[in-house]
Amino acid sequence: MTAAATQPPQVLVVEDEVHMQRFLRATLLANGYLVTEATTGELALLHATRRAPDVVVLDLGLPDIDGFEVMQRLRAFTKVPIVVLSARGHEADKVRALDAGADDYLTKPFGVGELLARLRAALRRAIVVKMGGGETVFEHGDLRVDLGARQVLLAGQEVRLTPIEWKMLTVLVANAGRVVTHQQLLQEVWGPQCVEETHYLRVYMSQMRRKLEPDPARPRCLLTEPGVGYRLRADR
Amino acid sequence: MSSGGQSRAQAATSLAAPRGGTKPTGWRPYAKAFAIMAVCTGVSEFLHAPFDLGNVVAVYLLGVMLAAAWLGRRPAVFASLLGALAVDFLFLPPLYGFLPEQAAHLLTFSVMLAVAATVGTLAARLREQLQKAQEREHNTATLYGLARDLARAADADAVVHAVDHHVRARFGCRAVLLTCTAGGALQGVGAAAPALDDRELDAARAAMAPAHDTPPVPARGRYQAMTTGKGTLGVLGLLPEAEGAPAVEPPHGYLEAFANQTAIALERTMLADAAGRAALAVEHERLRNTLLSSVSHDLRTPIASIIGASSALLREQTLDAHTRRELLESIHQEGGRLERQVRNLLDMTRLEAGTVQARLDWTPVEDVVGAVLTRLEDGLRDRELITHIEAELPPVPMDGMLIEQVLLNLLENALRHTPPGTPLELAARAVGTGVQIEVADRGPGLAANAFERVFEKFHGTARSGGFGLGLAICRAIASLHGGSVVAANRPGGGAVFTLTLPLVPPPSLPPLVRTSRGAS
Fold first, then answer.
1. How far apart are CA A19 and CA B66, in angstroms?
2. Is the CB of A91 less than 8 angstroms away from the CB of B366?
3. Strand A222-225 versus strand B424-431 pairing type
4. Per-residue pLDDT averaged across A145-167, rounded?
5. φ and ψ at B26, to 5 degrees?
6. Which residue in A150, A152, A202 is closest to B363 by CB distance?
7. Distance between CA A59 and CA A14 in Å, rounded?
8. Would you list the DSSP string of B77-108?
9. Are residues A147 and A137 in contact, defined by beta-carbon separation less than 8 angstroms?
10. Before A219, cis peptide (omega within 30)?
11. pLDDT grade, residue A58 (50/70/90)?
12. Cis amide bond preceding A109, omega within 30
């Protein structure tokens, strides 16, 4: 892993649309990533074995193999973070991709800022998983969450959370910057028998926003990903 | 013609009597005839001493005439028989005995009988004619009333209603209208058309066949073909209300008149329907043309900007940095506009196709508002947005994705139609059995006639530079939720769009299942 620290991260872009490809390549190169490109699922699998990329950007609509199948076959031999690209209105596909092992998704059309934020979060998490443990303190704006000390500070003031709120927050902090699906959150907090009851989450999330967000109706940290889940914003 | 039970009962009794029957039935007229003869006997007894037999006979003759005129032929014959016996028994020798000795007495009896028969027949005929005249008048009045009501009937349902009303009043049974479909089958007209069994349908079909062609089919109902100048339109049926009641037999030709009146009205409403459909088709065509022209305009405009700006960037090497940036910004913005328009078009198509179903889930309003504001972050950067969400607002059953779309469209709409720098407001509150979410602005507000029109598709193509679908989508989604969205002007200037969603008590939350150590 010493190489990863010095070498720029390598991204495998799996996209058959030539203009999207061009946009992704330009953006990633300009931001110091190394880019490998694949226009089909078979090529993607080939490059993934040969080049061992640090992160994969995968369009679900590919000409040869179904994007989900590509993901399954990737997951058979690698834990490399995968960010999928999908269109708005296909929320079920996003959830399915996340359940099948994707780390995150991007809704087309998206801008440079979103793309880079997703990649950073995915890479950071990959490192945390590899190293084990990871950071125990999360900071964003006025908010500071210390998992080790079991403490939440908002602008220096301690905030008291209920056990459920705390459990939800620790799951989100452990995945900071990444989307966490409703099912993942429910399973982590309430256990596997409650994965359909998304309204629990909504209610506790709005309680938590009242405690942690200056304006709960315009959340800065605890973001809703419509139809999919929640995301703790890690950077701007 | 009066309606209601009285006239119906009247009609029913007049129909219950045998056709042309003028004689009252039963034993009563005979009792009356007996009474008349008894009076005659009394009078004759009183007159007998000073007068001769001729006067007595005259008294009885008068009685027989009265009976004939009043009671009809048969009671009159009965009276003449009684009279002859009474004269024989009481006034002719041998007194109190039935042994007429002279042929003259037989003659007296014959004269009385002849008078009874003649006067009775004449009186009966007169009464019959009177009754017929009355019935004719009644029928004419009914037909007139029917014609009047049919003229007012605007649609097939109203025709059925009018016919049924008059059939009930005149014949004491219900009416059913059947029309021939393109396939030759008979189909009930109107929403409340009763289902007919095969036997009734056979009878109805038989009524439509040319006369003498098919023998009448025995059935509960009486059926009459409805014909207009163009041919047979269908069948009018009279169905007795009660099971097992006999079929009514209206006077010959009368039902035909009834049916033909109905046919004309029905044909008129059918033509009106066809005309309405044609008008609708024209409207569809117009809408389609509007759609095509706005699609081509609204999609091409941003595409033209994008192609133009990018080609300038590609070809012109001498552009300064500021101009290059401006061109790039317009490509970016126009791309966003294109995306919004395509999204709206697709959403509207999906909503209209009925493939979208609201998946209701208990959702706090804040959650949806937060998601919308995150999505609109860039657009709202230069605007003041005041949010006020009532504390303790309960979660609302809604499809978060769809309601997010509504709020997004309302906010985008407000951003587009108000001057830069004017503030926007978003408020949510509980009202009665619902929750209201308001998006308000301080722009120019709406014209008085626009409050409803803004929710129509393609209403504001020229003004807004969009398809004008955004608000139509809002309304479609609101009604999927059993809610509403309305527009109004605010006091102090600006417009306000109010989304109302119905509220029901939320379910309770379960306890924490897995053991979990909490925060301090």
1. 115
2. no
3. unpaired
4. 91
5. 95, -170
6. A202
7. 6
8. HHHHHHHHHHIIIIISSSTTS----SHHHHHH
9. yes
10. no
11. very high
12. yes
Query: Tokens for B370?
Result: 């937060």
Residue A59 CB burial class (10 angstroms; 0-12, 13-18, ≥19): buried
**What is the ipTM score, two decimals?**
0.77
CB A98 within 8 A of CB A228: yes
Rounded Cα distance between B237 and B240, Å, is 10
Q: B217 near B199, Cβ under 8 Å? A: yes
Contact status of B512 with chain A (Cβ, < 8 Å)? yes
Q: Give the integer Cα–Cα distance in Å for A89 and B270.
A: 44
B33 near B67, Cβ under 8 Å? yes
Report how far apart, in Å, the C-alpha atoms of B517 and of each of A154, A187, A200, B314 are. Answer: 21, 16, 19, 61
Q: How far is CA B128 from CA A74, B7, B72, B118, B136, in A?
A: 103, 20, 11, 15, 12
Q: Is A19 on the interface with B (CB under 8 A)?
A: no
More confident residue, B438 or B106: B438
Tell the residue number behind the tokens 């504390």, with chain if given.
B391
**Closest Cα in chain B, distance from residue A80 (Å):** 29
Residue A22 corresponds to which tokens in the numbers above?
A: 């061009």
Would you say B365 and B393 are in contact if contact means Cβ atoms under 8 Å apart?
yes
- Give dist(CA A27, CA A14) in Å, integer: 15
Strands A10-14 vs A34-38: parallel, antiparallel or unpaired: parallel
Q: pTM value?
A: 0.59
Contact of B219 with B203, CB cutoff 8 Å: yes
What's the average model confidence in pLDDT over B94-106? Answer: 62
What does the alpha-carbon distance between residue B238 and residue B171 come to, in Å, rounded to a whole number? 8
Distance in angstroms (rounded) separating the CA atoms of residues B300 and B176: 57
- Which stretches of B354-489 are DSSP H helices? 365-375, 400-417, 450-453, 461-464, 470-480
Question: For the residues B456-472, what does the mean pLDDT come to?
Answer: 65
Asked whether the beta carbons of B63 and B39 are under 8 A apart, the reply is yes
Q: 3-state SS string over chain A?
A: CHHHHHCCCEEEEECCCHHHHHHHHHHHHHCCCEEEEECCHHHHHHHHHHHCCCEEEEECCCCCCCHHHHHHHHHCCCCCCEEEEEECCCHHHHHHHHHCCCCEEEEECCCHHHHHHHHHHHHHHHHHHHHCCCCCEEEECCEEEECCCCEEEECCEECCCCHHHHHHHHHHHHCCCCEEEHHHHHHHHCCHHHCCCHHHHHHHHHHHHHHHCCCCCCCCCEEEECCCEEEECCCC
Q: Hey, how many other C-beta atoms are within 10 angstroms of the C-beta on A217? A: 22
pLDDT digits (tens, 9 = 90+) for B287-334: 777 767 767 777 888 898 899 899 999 988 888 999 999 999 999 989
For residue B189, what is the DSSP state? -
**Two structure tokens written together for B354:** 């009925």
Distance CA A204, CA B456 (A): 39
pLDDT band at B169 (very low <50, low <70, confident <90, very high): confident
Structure confidence at residue B214 (pLDDT): 57
Q: What contacts A136, CB < 8 A, 6 or more positions away?
A: A146, A147, A148
For A160-192, what is each residue's pLDDT tens digit? 999 999 999 999 998 888 999 998 999 989 888
Closest residue on chain B to A200 (Cα): B509
Interface contact A190-B514, CB threshold 8 A: yes
The values of phi and psi at residue A169, to 5°, are: -65, -40
Which of A13-27, B28-42, B47-61, B384-398 is the least confident region?
A: B47-61
Mean pLDDT of A98-112: 89
Q: Which of residues 312-371 of B touch A (CB under 8 A)?
A: 335, 339, 343, 346, 361-364, 366-371
What pLDDT band is residue A144 in, cutting at 50, 70 and 90? Answer: very high
Q: Report the percent of chain A where pLDDT is more than 90.
A: 49
